[in-house]
Please model this.
Amino acid sequence: MSEHYKQSRKKPCEQIHRWPTSRSKSWTPTFVNLVRKDENIMAVVAVGSAVRSSVRSSDLDLVVICREPARMKIKPPIEIDIRTYAASRVDTLIRGGNDLLGWAVKFGRVLFQREGFWDAVLESWLDQLPFPSVEVALQRASDSFRRLNNVLKLGDVDAAYEQALSYVTHLARAELLRRRVYPASRPELPKQLRTAGCVRIAEWLERLIDRKVEHSEQIAELVDSYNQVTTCNGSESWGRP
Model:
């Protein structure tokens, strides 16, 4: 747990390595100062690739733990996603494999906490963190694949790219979870996959992350080809979820 405590001694927003926009960089410290005065807020934890030092991406979400989530009315800029959870439910959700709270425990950076709330969560769970569900990851992949087919029919290339990236990302996470590897941020998944021996999946994901697939035909071809290969250990076919 030492890394988490070392990081928490920094000024809150120094723990965010990259910002999605200049607006998010100015909004977040203001938000943190506001929640200090709000007794409803127990903790704010930054998650996403922006808090990871080894990647270039700057995705940023905030996990906000509240006594009563319905009372949380502050709206962030569009480039920051806020996820609220009831303080009374945090332990139950982590125990059940909630992937975002689990990621916050394993990789997140606390920007604010009241009464040592997040320190207590780390103390309870960091060394015995349940893995998220493989089945949930595969269901999310299935949902993305369905949306991908729909937007491909409409010829919406940008939407098709986003759904293809979502689809392969969820499949990659499911493959890592099957191997008892906790998935890090999306830009880190290809390296994790290669370490696990999943070279082909890593290659597909990298092509999408690096936007080396530009046209709807290429996206359709990539996904169709991907669905024809076996998993990295050759034991079973991915196929369409």
Notes: Residues 134-226 form one domain. The chain has ten helices and four strands.
